[in-house]
Input
Amino acid sequence: PHHENLPPLNRQFVAHFGEWQPQGINRTVGQIYALLFISAKPLNADDITEALEFSRSNVSMGLKELQSWRLVQ
Output
């Protein structure tokens, strides 16, 4: 995905963070976390789906994984 909804620097950060893959976290989950990390306001699953152009099911699974790591609420 090209993440046209994000400013270029944010896009770059999200993409690079997704490549980092700490502790076996996959790229999608890493990119969701990066987006939440840089966001000025809380985002819901629909916001994330729109911003990252991921499928809703991928976002839901990613959020569940992040919740299991206690990285998001």
